[in-house]
UniProtKB/TrEMBL annotation:
It comes from Metabacillus halosaccharovorans. Keywords: Membrane, Transmembrane, Transmembrane helix. This is serine-type D-Ala-D-Ala carboxypeptidase. Its EC number is 3.4.16.4. Belongs to the transpeptidase family. Residues 586-646, 647-703 form the PASTA domain.
Amino acid sequence: MNFKKSVNMNRGSAFLAIIFLVLFLVILFRFLYIMVTGSIDGVNLVENKERRITKEGILEGKKGEILTRDGEKIAVDSQVYTIIGVLNKKDPNHIKDIPDTASKLAKVLETDAKEIEQLLSDSKAYQVELGKIGRNITFSQMKEISDLELPGIIFSPDIRRTYPLGDFSSHIVGITDFDGKGISGIEKEYANKLSGTDGYINKKIDGFRGWGYELPQKKSESKPPQNGNNIHTTLDTNIQTILEDSMNQVVKEYSPGKIIGIVMDPKSGEILALSNRPSIYPNEQNEVNYLNYALSSSFEPGSTMKIFTLASAINEGVYNGNEKYKSGAIEVTGTLIHDHKKDGWGTITYDKGVQLSSNVAFTILAKDKLGFDRFYHYLQEFGFDKKTGIDMGDETLGKFVYEFPLEKATTSFGQGSTFTPIQLVTAASSIANDGKMMKPYVIKKIADENGKTLKETQPKVLNKPISAETAKQTRELLTSVVTDGTGSHFQLNDFQVAGKTGTAQIPDGNGNYQVGRNNYMFSFLGMAPADDPRLIVYVAVEQPNLNSDQVGADPVSEIFNTVMDYGLKKLNATSDVDSNKRSTDELTPIIMDSYKDKSVKNTVSFLKEKGIEPIILGIGEKVVETAPIEGTELLKGSKVLIKTDGKKVMPDIRGWSLSDVMKLSSLTGLEIQHEGNGFVASQSIAVGREIKDGNKLSVKLEKNR
């Protein structure tokens, strides 16, 4: 029995030894395989280890800014917030009362509580965002909601494109969607230049213990973000502001369907100001019509077209201003073309016909003096058959209606054929610039985040359709239109204006024109000073509500005269009006002096004497700094902010423009958060409260103040 037991034990031991040997060999083989290949089941151990101990963070590159020619910021990236609702009841900080929370949020966000309640009722979600309703929340809204202390409502910070100057040249600057993608204007056309490039930082952490401590022996890898390029426009802050303000006044007074305004430097082609009404309010993020009428809308120009018919006839040597013709009506292929005064003015000279805007005179010039073929050639030379090539997207092209003799005749005085406002202004630059037609542009330069210029636009001559002598003679005749003809509304005290009015009929969509004294596009295309123009200004007002004692030139001149007069004085243009005709004007610019280290009391007195409104920001006796700075040109009634050597104190800013609020920011270091458009209706920092470093000021703007 003992012998048999010993044999069985030996066999068992041998069997176990074999099993352990096999297992050892398997493990050894597996170990050797891992050592050689460095992987398990296709997973690379080195890479997997690196992933486990590597923490990667994205460093976002900011979009570049859009600025005026004088450095005012029009578009910037700003801090905003996204609302998040915590729904999981296991989280101690979850939403306790959904209807109550939705109701309170709706009041702040000015939206429907039921829509918020529906979003917060997703029982399967741990937490939810509120879609568009809860995105891009301003600092003031975030603070207002935070003060409600709603359980389960938290905020995620984000970056959003904002526009500090509101609707300032909004059709040129453009707008972005909720994701920051440009959908119009410069924001769209130059998106690749503005966009930044994200960077990253990779840290090595102790992933085994799960604490995420950075490993001291491991170096972090990083790539800095590349911010987008800044785009400096040709827009002049002050001229653009005057254009915007005068347009707003006309909207308020006349309620027109549309307004277009363009200001160009005819020597260079720079667009100094451009605006449309209706406007875009980019900070409101609810726009649907981004059409830039100045570039993307063509219409019958009316009598402003006569400028180019006249210049063509003069350049060809077929214009004799002293020659006479019979006004009233002329027949073209069986159809009568009438003057706006149906029975005319009898037999008059062509010079008089120009002053009175006679359709008959310009029909004769195109049909009989030039000939329709030669006239068409000049229209091509003036660029009416092609786009101007302005450095913006969405420029459209008008339509020549020039097949039959009647259509050719009506084109000569601005009916039938359609053109864009930018085509008219570009063509007019040849009249203002001694025959040289300049290419319009709005991008002055593109610079990187360090200020290095990457690209700068240079003036470009598109064509020379007429001679310098023709341009001069045309300006002289257009000056007489203003002094002795239909353009009398557009006379200025200190400058001679050369220009032409336009009254274009509006198609009704059924092959006819709308009727009624208001149903016209009233316009004026003018340049000044007439002897050597520094500015071209085009203004068109569609369908204004006119009283019985008003005419279409009234709303147009309210914009044109204000903008042209101010713009010329800002440019220090030389007056070409006799000294006995000049008068002191409230639009005369006042040059800001330096008041640094001077007495606050004396500075206030000096500014008041000049018609400037001083705003004292501190409790002190000496001036430390002012906004605007020395050398800035101001209008009477402008605000000058004075920082003293005492503590900074919050003024009452209700009724201020956003531009004035930004001056306050530059002096005090306040971070400005704003919503709405127009003028300040409320402020988050109380009047008289001390302003401390790091304070944030939230303001609400309203349009009707």
